[in-house]
Each structure stands twice: as structure tokens, then as C-alpha cells.
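Researcher: Go.
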Amino acid sequence: SRSSEEALPWLNKALDRLSLVVDDKSNSNTNSMAQKYVVAALSKRAECFAHTQRDSEAIRDCDQALGLADREDRHELIIRRAKSLAALGEHEGAVEDVKNSLAAVGKADDVHFHAAWAMSVAKRAVETDDGIPAPEKDKLAKEYGRLAVEHLLAAEQAAALTRLQLDDLRRHADFAPIRGEESVQHLFQNQ
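Model: Structure:
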């Protein structure tokens, strides 16, 4: 979190300079490369905003980056936005983003862990959503939890679950809603 705060001013400076290059239409090759760097910087800044609980700003950066990103970069941005939407309690938008990301890239192995993360946060968000009647809330929470675990198992099956990701799964508060699931406990025992 502290390193994220420290990175923000540098990312802001980088984005200011890159925007000058992108706005200069005299060299399309330079402009195209600068645009890729803008997408990368916006993505990184969105990650920093999310780590510092500034999820509205993270969503704004993801949306801006999505407007510039190539097709192959979009799924990471969409998943990053899904996590922030869920953190803000917008679980329906988060679930839609996860579905859209997976539809855009198919069943890419590297997407599953982050899709599980977003679904776990969505589960927590729906559990605290007072605008939904209790029976529907319970149904959605179970569904979001099931999908989170399903994505974790898909990542494990594809051998795409890293030791660092397992550490996040064990320790990060965002995974608390699914950590007690039998399948998740089984993941810990297998590693």
C-alpha cells in the first residue's frame, strides 16, 4: 500500500509526458508506441489506486485505458475494473465484467485467478448489500462463491496457480469469503 502511494506521483508524471507524445500526430509509429505505454501506465496506476482503496479512481483509469487498449490487453483491464467495482459494492457490474473478460479471451489460464479474486470480492459485496432481499442475497452469494472457487480450480488444473497467488489466497482479506470452502482448503493441502 505504501509503495502504491509512492508510485502514484511517478505514474502521474509519466502519463503527463506520454499524453504529449500521443497528442502529437506528426509521427504515427511513435504515437502508437506511446499509446501502448499510456495503457500500461493507466493500468499500473489503476492497480495502485485499488491497493490504496481508491477504487473509483481505479475504475476511471481502467475505463480510459480500455478506450486505448489493443484487444489482447483488454481482459486484464476488465478484470482489474471488476475487482474495483466489487470493492465499491457494485457486484452485478463486477460479475458482468468477469464474464466479458472471459468471453473476450476464452478460458485463458492466466485470467482464472484474478477472475476468482473479483468473484470473491463480489460475494462479500452482495452479502452486505441491503438493497437485496435475504433469499436472493443468499442465492447470489452462493453463486458468486461457487464461481470464485470454480475459477481457482481451473487455474490449478491448468498449472497456472503460482506460489504468490496461493499466498494471496491464504492471507488477503479479499479472499476471506471463500477461504473456508472445502475446495480452497484442498488447494492449500496440495501445494
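Model: Residues 56 and 84 are 7 Å apart (CA to CA).
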